[in-house]
Amino acid sequence: MLTKFLLTMQTKKIMIIGIGNLILKDEGVGIHVVKELQKRQLPPDIDVIDGGNAMMELLSILQEADNSIVIDSLRAGGKPGTIYRFSPQDLMNATERPLSLHQVDLLDVLGIAKILDGDAHVVIIGIEPKEISWGMDLTPPVKHKVPSVIDVVFEEIEKIQNA
């Protein structure tokens, strides 16, 4: 009986999407995190995607997933390396939105995705940048937080799988 139940249970598709620009130092933190995650053996129901900074192209990716974890740099006034966890609704309801550095705002894309598929669950993990300027390397306070960001991602995966 339990075996039959387990076979009929659907796994929840999870997309982990790193956003950013690798040539602008801390703006690329989302990409650096997904590159680290891609080195790990993850279950087949988890996809790790380098989303770059082309927001509108993420729309179809977001629609494929039951759950998405988006990782990006996010200026919200904290110390460099501060890790934030938001739902899109948290950010949309804020009187002042944290600064996005992309040509089309992530929240705009998430809003469109919500209209098209209202059931998808999205979590945004933001990391406060120290410096957004030319360069391929993360600044030390942001680079040192990459393992902590990965821990937060795994905590989110566990929450999703246990829901």
**Helix/strand order, N-terminal first:** HEHEHEEHHEHH
The whole-angstrom Rg is 16 Å
* Strand count: 5
Strand order of the largest sheet: 2-1-3-5-4
The total number of structural domains is 1
Query: What's the pLDDT, averaged over the residues?
Result: 83
Shape: globular
Tally of contiguous helical segments: 7
> Can you summarize the main beta sheet?
5 strands, mixed
Tell me the helix content. Answer: 25-40%
| CATH class categorisation | Alpha Beta
End-to-end Cα distance, whole Å, is 22 Å
Please report which band the strand proportion falls in: under 5%, 5-15%, 15-25%, 25-35%, 35-45% or over 45%: 15-25%
Assign the CATH topology: Rossmann fold
Structural class per helix/strand content? Answer: alpha/beta
In the predicted model, the low-confidence regions spanning at least 5 consecutive residues are: 1-9
Give a verbal description of the structure:
- This protein is of the alpha/beta class and 163 residues long.
- It has a single domain (13-162), classed as Rossmann fold (3-Layer(aba) Sandwich).
- It has seven helices and five strands, in the order H-E-H-E-H-E-E-H-H-E-H-H.
- Strands 2-1-3-5-4 form a five-stranded mixed β-sheet, with helices on both faces.
- Helix 2 (29-38) packs across helix 7 (146-162).
- The chain is globular.
- It starts with a helix and ends with a helix.
- Residues 1-9 have low confidence and may be disordered.
